[in-house]
Amino acid sequence: MRYATGKPYAQIASQTQMTLEGLGGATVYGPMIGQSRLASGDTIYRHIDNVESMSTNVDAGFIMQKENVASRYRLAYFRVAPDGIVKDWATGTLPGERLGCIWYAGGFVRQCSSDTQRLQSLAVYDSLVRTSTQQLLSSWGTPVADAQ
User: Which of 68, 123, 129, 131 could form a cystine bridge with 135, CB 3.0-4.6 A?
Assistant: First the structure.
């Protein structure tokens, strides 16, 4: 994240991953999930990306198979000056969705349950991030409503 400071936000936000996913257009910091203007004129851009998925499997042969998948998301925020240059960054993690599936009779019958936490309000996300100096997001200033 330190790399972003002093660089144009447009360049940072469009930077693709150096992985197979990056070939499909996946960006380093994930998709933008929101933005807000500050009274100072700066803008906060919020991004979220799945950074870790863990899968466990239990195979009891033809009778039953069980799979659990847990994800973790990285929150990446950028404080951008009116000239488009990144002034600061904030980051945090969000425990992600947990998905459990059980297959019976060789996969013909499937039961899944999901505990999705990714779709939260921005206030929840904002409470999870800390700036580059380990401050709360509110240390960047007061958000203002955009003029209509």
Answer: 131
Tell me the C-alpha distance between 1 and 49, whole Å: 14
Q: Is 131 helix (H, G, I), strand (E, B) or coil?
A: strand
Length of the chain: 148
How many CA atoms lie less than 13 Å away from 87 in the CB half-sphere?
14
Q: Please write the tens of the pLDDT for every residue from 29-71.
A: 988 999 999 999 999 999 988 776 666 666 665 556 666 666 7
**Nearest residue to 88 via CA among 121, 132, 139:** 132
Buried b (16+ CB within 10 A) or exposed e, 25-38: eebbbbeebeebbe
pTM of the model as a whole: 0.71
Distance between CA atoms of residues 68 and 112, nearest Å: 10
CB 29 within 8 Å of CB 7: no
Strand, helix or coil for residue 7: coil
Q: Phi/psi of residue 125, each to 5°?
A: -60, -45
Tokens coding 57: 């499997």
Query: Which amino acid does the sequence have at 120?
Result: Q
